[in-house]
């Protein structure tokens, strides 16, 4: 197992280096002075410019420049934002919790709703019901996320005025950051505002979370259904039925844990799509996360923000993808058997 983890670590390092090389090449193509693109310092004086040139080895060969570039970026030094002249790393720290909060809630909704529906669909062999499920999941997978977000905002926010359509919380509330997750922080601040701030944060996250969870929800339903149909036909399931075990006990203790293993692997494959969907959702609902911040930086030609956002999102996707692959290998008995049998 140690060799397997070492190979995954090498894959993470190699993939990250390739991503950083592409980002380094793109930085040289920005239509601005390289000193400004790397540091974010507007109109640097002679001393500042000399320091930046020396720090990023701009007076050396391309390999030395790349080494200095990855050293700065991997240490968390993304320079200053060209727009706000604040450290990009600090702005990232401020916007990352909002993206994590939205993604976690959307993922939980997709799992809590999708797994039971997929299990029930696997037991229903009626042809019309199966066709309805397949059509519904295919439609949910194919619908443009920005259109879905705009329609939900129009129906439930504009026409009926049931839910807010932008932001993370009403500006009337001043919530002191404790954990960085606004739902938790507003709940902890309930003594000051009652439960009004907490309910307001829940209302603000409903539409973005529903919009974002549609893609993983359709995938979870289809994968759970297919996996359950395959697992329920296995010999050990028929043996459990022959022993007289209750259907619910068979499903919960034997079939469902094995059916969830391929779903875990599929989630790793769709992380890139999920991240792009999250960016569109944050822009549609003005959600103050990394996606909204990154798109704003693109519109404002804030080159250091673009580098910091792309680098952070890409590293997170690479890391989570490899982590899910490791968890899949560790939780899959067949994979572990093959792994230990070949090493």
From TrEMBL:
The chain crosses the membrane at residues 9-26, 102-121, 133-156, 205-224, 274-294, 306-327. It holds the Pfam family BPD_transp_1. It is a multi-pass membrane protein. Gene3D superfamilies: MetI-like (1.10.3720.10). It is found in: Cell membrane. Its main location: membrane. Residues 96-328 form the ABC transmembrane type-1 domain. GO terms for cellular component: plasma membrane. GO terms for molecular function: dipeptide transmembrane transporter activity. InterPro entries: MetI-like (IPR000515), MetI-like_sf (IPR035906). Keywords: Cell membrane, Membrane, Transmembrane, Transmembrane helix, Transport. PANTHER family: DIPEPTIDE TRANSPORT SYSTEM PERMEASE PROTEIN DPPB-RELATED (PTHR43163:SF6). Belongs to the binding-protein-dependent transport system permease family. OppBC subfamily. This is ABC transporter permease. It comes from Parashewanella spongiae.
């Amino acid at each position: 197992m140690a060799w397997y983890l070492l190979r995954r670590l090498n894959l993470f390092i190699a993939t990250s280096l390739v991503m950083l090389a592409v980002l380094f090449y793109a930085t040289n193509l920005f239509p601005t002075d390289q000193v400004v693109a790397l540091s974010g310092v507007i109109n640097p004086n002679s001393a500042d410019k000399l320091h930046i040139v020396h720090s990023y080895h701009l007076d050396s060969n391309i390999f030395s420049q790349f080494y200095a570039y990855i050293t700065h970026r991997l240490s968390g030094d993304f320079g200053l934002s060209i727009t706000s002249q604040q450290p990009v790393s600090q702005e990232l720290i401020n916007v990352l919790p909002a993206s994590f909060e939205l993604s976690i809630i959307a993922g939980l909704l997709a799992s809590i709703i999708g797994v039971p529906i997929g299990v029930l669909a696997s037991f229903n062999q009626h042809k019309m019901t199966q066709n309805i499920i397949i059509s519904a999941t295919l439609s949910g997978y194919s619908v443009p996320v920005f259109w879905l977000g705009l329609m939900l905002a129009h129906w439930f926010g504009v026409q009926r005025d049931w839910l807010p359509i932008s932001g993370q919380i009403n500006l009337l509330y001043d919530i002191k950051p404790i954990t960085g997750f606004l739902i938790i922080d507003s709940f902890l601040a309930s003594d000051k505002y009652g439960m009004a701030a907490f309910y307001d944060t829940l209302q603000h996250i409903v539409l973005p979370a529903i919009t974002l969870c549609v893609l993983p929800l359709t995938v979870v339903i289809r994968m759970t259904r297919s996996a359950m149909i395959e697992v329920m036909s296995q010999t050990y399931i028929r043996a459990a039925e022959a022993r007289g075990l209750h259907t619910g006990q068979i499903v919960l203790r034997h079939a469902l844990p094995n059916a969830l293993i391929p779903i875990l692997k599929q989630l790793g494959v769709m992380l890139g799509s999920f991240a792009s969907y999250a960016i569109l959702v944050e822009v549609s609902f003005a959600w103050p996360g990394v996606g909204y911040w990154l798109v704003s930086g693109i519109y404002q030609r804030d080159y250091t923000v673009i580098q910091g956002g792309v680098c952070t999102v890409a590293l997170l996707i690479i890391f989570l993808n490899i982590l899910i692959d490791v968890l899949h290998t560790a939780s899959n008995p067949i994979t572990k058997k093959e792994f230990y049998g070949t090493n």
